[in-house]
Amino acid sequence: MPLRADGVGTGPYGRLAADGLRYGPAFRGMRAAWRHGEELYADVALPEAVRASGPEADGPEFVLHPALFDAALHALALDGLVKDGSGAVGPAAAGLSLPFAFGGVRVHTTGVQRLRVRVGPGPDGQAAVELTDETGSPVATVRSLTLRPLPRTGPATADPVTGALHRTDWVPLTESVRWRAPVAMARWGVLGAAGTRLVDTLAPPGSGVPVYRGPAACDASAAVVVAPCPPPDTTGGARDQAAGLLRAVSAVRHPGFEPGEALPATLDALVTAQAIAVRAAAAEGPLVLLGRSAGGWVAHAVAERLESEGAAPAAVVLVDTYPPVTATGVRRSPR
Q: b/e string for 100-121 if b means 16 or more Cβ within 10 A?
């Protein structure tokens, strides 16, 4: 049964081009194609434009010309567009499939410019290809040919001006993604004296970071003041002011990592243990919880537990933490 391209373009290559597969003159070697049951047959010849050019004077001659070998497989693409039993080619219902991998390739003779092609079922659902000359003598065989579908993202129409499938264009931004001025960062200062490691690192000359010699010198221009620990040597009221700038920091470890220490059996047991440890470390004072990565989930769960017990933390800081994904695949945002 012939594979026709009636009324679409000019011959089979006009139909393939209409569906997004364009071949230049050097690769239009398929003369005719047929299907018989599960087998495809084709008649291909090396295009005149390629024959006239001949091999390069200083280049190798081809054992099997790549343009001829490529044309031998074009029937596979054309066959992918057959939409009914009449052999007429229509819209790509099955889609285009192109050669992807070859196995067991053997060349039996060279110098051939015209081929008879037979494509039949191969091993493991692949295709097998036999190429012969006009007398039926073997030219080449492909034991297994793997095809891959050509991705289809829309009509394959070329730009009429440049001939390109893609072009640049100006697209107005929506209001939600328009540029906005960056949010001003909170200003911070350093408590200490010039020449100390903390000041030289965080407030080098020319940085504009204010340096305060003592707690009494701190003003409202800095929202955050970084103080050394222990604080500078101060006395009297200055020491009391310095103490007001400092916060005790406690690291609460996960249970189950010491030798002989059992891991909590459930997440609820882990949260209970961590809540007890946090309350013991914070005593009766206000506290801020900080958790990093997966530890952020635990910190948030502990904060919820403490809140339910009437001891909610002043804040919860999550560093590099993402909301956990529920069983339905939806991220659950922390409250």
A: eeeeeeeeeeeebeebbbbbee
Closest CA to 154 of 21, 20, 22, 23: 20
- Tell me the mean pLDDT in the region 217-240: 64
Residue 26's alpha-carbon distances to 29, 60, 274, 309, in angstroms, are 8, 18, 74, 80
Cβ neighbors of 207 (< 8 A, separation 6 or more) are none
- Residue owning tokens 């434009």: 49
Domain ranges of the chain: 11-149, 188-242, 247-335
Task: Specify the higher pLDDT residue, 211 or 59.
Answer: 211
- SS3 call for 40: strand
The CA distance from 137 to 134, in Å, is 8
Q: How confident is the model at residue 72 (pLDDT cuts 50, 70, 90)?
A: very high
CA distance 160 to 157: 9
| Closest of 81, 77, 121 to residue 99, by C-alpha | 77
Task: Give the bridge partners for 2, in sequence order.
Answer: 34
Q: Which residues are bridge partners to 106 per DSSP?
A: 141
Task: Tell the CATH topology of 11-149.
Answer: Thiol Ester Dehydrase; Chain A (3.10.129)
- Residue found under tokens 């030219």: 139
